[in-house]
Amino acid sequence: MKLYYSPGACSLSPHIALIESGLHFELEKVDLKSGKTESGADYASINPKGYVPALLLDSGSLLTEGPTIVQYIADHAPSARIAPKPGAMARYQLTEWLGYINSEIHKAFGPLFDRSSPEEAKAAARKKLDRRFAYVARHLSEHAYLVEDTFSVADGYLFVTLRWAKAIGIDLSAYPSLDAFRERMNQRPAVVSALSEEGIEVI
Ligand SMILES: N[C@@H](CCC(=O)N[C@@H](CS)C(=O)NCC(=O)O)C(=O)O
Predict the structure, then answer these.
(1) DSSP state of 85
(2) For residues 82 and 21, is the Cβ–Cβ distance under 8 A?
């Protein structure tokens, strides 16, 4: 398997999942500005969607969309226990969190990452993110992880969005459970390895 990634982007979530899974994988960095991969390939010819993450399977099939990729990884390494079994109630809780992080948190960062977006759009995005993170913080004030009080692929994804929040100065000091969660995740060996492999710092 090969994961196409960009340092610190949402592809860090499947990267963490791959390390946690113990499955064998390779990495290929994508320069999202030039559209080239580190081996010089035209990324659009590999993933016509043009964005990361993408997971190239040994069969030659390409999987895209972070929430799908992390579940594929988890289901192919059941002994790593990084997602509840398909069909279990907890599995729907996992997909509920993945959906929430994907559409309500990840995508809400859009205006903050876009230099051309107007200040009002940025302010609205910050307000929305505050509400979205407040909901997660309430859950994490009573639970160490998002699903069944044990690490799952949803935690890796949430961690990535908390790194972004910290990096761009979103004030989450009202939610100490989020800071504590990010710190806890920073200690996980798989997270330490993923950050080091991507050449990005611990924040
Ligand atoms: N729907 C996709 C979105 C992935 C996404 O937003 N990727 C960003 C990095 S975090 C990206 O590659 N952006 C560059 C682009 O859209 O061209 C998913 O959930 O995997």
Answers:
(1) P
(2) yes
pLDDT in tens, 12-60: 999 999 999 999 999 999 999 999 999 999 999 999 999 999 999 999 9
| DSSP-assigned letters across all residues of 92-107 | HHHHHHHHIIIIIIGG
Q: Does residue 182 lie within any of the structural domains?
A: yes
**How many structural domains does the chain have?**
2
**Ligand 1 neighbourhood includes 51 CB (under 6 angstroms):** yes
The CA distances from residue 86 to 82, 91, 92, 99, 147, in Å, are 12, 6, 8, 16, 14
Same domain for 75 and 123, yes or no, is no
82 C-beta closer than 6 A to ligand 1: no
pTM of the model as a whole: 0.98
- Three-class DSSP category at 114: coil
99 lines ligand 1 (CB under 6 A): no
